[in-house]
Amino acid sequence: MTAGPTWEALDPVRGLSNHSSGKMGYAVAAAARKAGADVDLISGPTALSAPSGVRLIAVRSADEMMAAVQNGIDRCDIFIGVAAVADYRPAHAEESKIKKNDERVTLELVRNPDILSWVSAHHKRPFTVGFAAETNNPLEYARAKLASKNLDLIAVNHVSNQNNPFGSDQNQLVVISATDESDLGRKSKTQLAAELVGVIARKFHERHKTQNS
Ligand code: PMT
Q1: pTM, to two decimals
Q2: Whole-number pLDDT of residue 146
Q3: Which atom from ligand 1 is nearest to the alpha carbon of 116?
Q4: Per-residue three-class SS string for 29-94
């Protein structure tokens, strides 16, 4: 699974990132481990320590996160993408600190790889779970993402004045599959993670039963 933000370097001391603290992803990793899973946690830079029994693979950029995911895909039954991956990175990272010479500078950004879409298109496709953080029409966008990224499940958090999941110990999640939706409500990330892992385990076993019948 992935968690945390990515850091897209502009020069050795600056970069582009976001407010993901890693708390949601680390809580999911701990809950999955508690449920008996063997967990690889591929994480962007956070201030958190790895949950007990979880293998932490520390990365910085989306490219590094992608490489770590590609490295582990063959031994993965379930993939959960909780990371807030930067969609774009600077076209060039300067080797030395950018100097303040000009009044105005233009930053050229290029698209980052979509890790989740790569996983769900893989020939040994694991059961694939995505996250979505949206400010407007979260359920509509999440249903569209479930289909466009070919996911088994998506967990949606609404980013609003009442619920800002970035950095908070609380969150509010709705879990969506192609056939049903369940509102897990607003509670601690630890509790939500345990319930989410329960839903993932149930759906994963259902899919296995269908494939084997
Ligand atoms: O870390 P916290 O402070 O606890 O905050 C938790 C969270 C808000 C970061 C988390 O709950 C969450 O919602 N993570 C997904 C954030 C997001 O903005 O996702 P997205 O809509 O950009 O991407 C959708 C999905 O595609 C995600 O599963 C993401 O991991 C994945 N993705 C996105 C872009 C990309 N290049 N590669 C990806 O794999």
Answers
A1: 0.97
A2: 97
A3: 39
A4: HHHHHHCCCCCEEEECCCCCCCCCCCEEEECCCHHHHHHHHHHHHHHCCEEEECCECCCEEECCCC
